Amino acid sequence: MKHDYLPEAFETFGSTKERRKKIRKAVLALDNKVKMEKKCSIDNRCHSGFCPTCLRLLRKKFLRFVQREELAKREWYMVTVFVEGWTKPAGDFEPFGELKNNPIIKKFLKQLRKVGQPDMLLFGSIETVFKVRDNKPIGKPFHLHMLISGASKEQIRVSVRKTIPRPTIGVPLRIDHVQQTAKDLVRSSSYILKQTFWLRSESKKGFKKLESPKPQQLAELLSNLGTHQWGDRFFYIGIRFCYGKFSITPNVKSMFTKKTNNKSHKSHTPLPKTPKK
User: What secondary structure does DSSP assign to 177-222, as a single string?
Assistant: First the structure.
């Protein structure tokens, strides 16, 4: 089956084209505060971080990489972190600032490298949504989503505590174990690389849903994220994204090979010795 590495109900190419038109219209209305190429074609992709078509392509590339490298065989944790001081109030059009190169992200990655295994893998994203509760605007909380393999739940928790200031309300940190199946890892991976620009509607009864933002809300999200390229929200450990391709870094790849060879030797049952006559 073609593209069997994609999750069910994966967005269609046509839907991203229509969404791109709306985003491009919102970009033009902002009078050069942010930029996005007019066209994006199969022969000349715009690679804009605003472009739903390019982001769909990036997600497909990553999910194919997950399948090719058989990453579902590893143990993974899905991590969500909300950060103190990272919420943009409703009505704020100022840029958030650095995305994947944010100092807090760099500090966390450095700390996790110290305690994690040598063959650790991590891929994550910084994102935001326009949050509304009972039809009242709450703001736009920038936050982190990550998938981590090669570090324990406690190592992740301690690394977050040491490097990331978290709000005292809500659930600032969530660490969930991912089931060791290809389907579960694909679903989690796709969520981390999901499309931007959503309205998150909540109610006092706990009902939550994602929907398309209104023009004013979309304009704020565009302005807050600022002009960026398709890979500028994503960060990694042990994984490399270069020239539109994902790969495992050579040092981690060599450790995979070494571990596989060791397992192969251990599983080999030697022939019984011939008794001496």
Answer: EEPSSHHHHHHHHHHHT--S--EEEE-TT--EEEEPPPHHHHHHHH
Euclidean distance between CA atoms 211 and 201, whole angstroms: 8
Instruction: Give the start-to-end residue ranges of the domains of the chain.
Output: 13-255
Six token digits for residue 1: 């089956």
- The whole-model pTM stands at 0.89
φ/ψ region of 234 (left if φ > 0, alpha if ψ in -120 to 50, else beta) reads beta
Angle at CA 77, nearest 5°, toward 76 and 78? 125
- DSSP one-letter string for 18-85: HHHHHHHHHHHHTTTSS---S--BTTB---BTT-HHHHHHHHHHHHHHHHHTTGGGS-EEEEEEEEEE
Buried b (16+ CB within 10 A) or exposed e, 165-200: ebeeeeebeebeebeeebeebbbbbbebbebbbbbb
Which residue in this structure is represented by tokens 């100092």?
103
Task: Specify burial of residue 93 (Cβ count, 10 A radius: 0-12, 13-18, 19+).
Answer: middle
Banded pLDDT at 144 (limits 50, 70, 90): very high
Sort 27 into a burial class: Cβ within 10 Å, 0-12 / 13-18 / 19+.
buried
- Asked if 85 and 165 touch (Cβ cutoff 8 Å), the reply is yes
**pLDDT for res 1:** 44
Residue with tokens 């190592």: 155
What is the C-alpha to C-alpha distance for residues 80 and 82, in angstroms, rounded to an integer? 7
Percentage of the chain exceeding pLDDT 70: 91
Parallel/antiparallel/unpaired status of strands 234-237 and 121-127 = antiparallel
Q: pLDDT confidence of 189, banded at 50, 70, 90?
A: very high
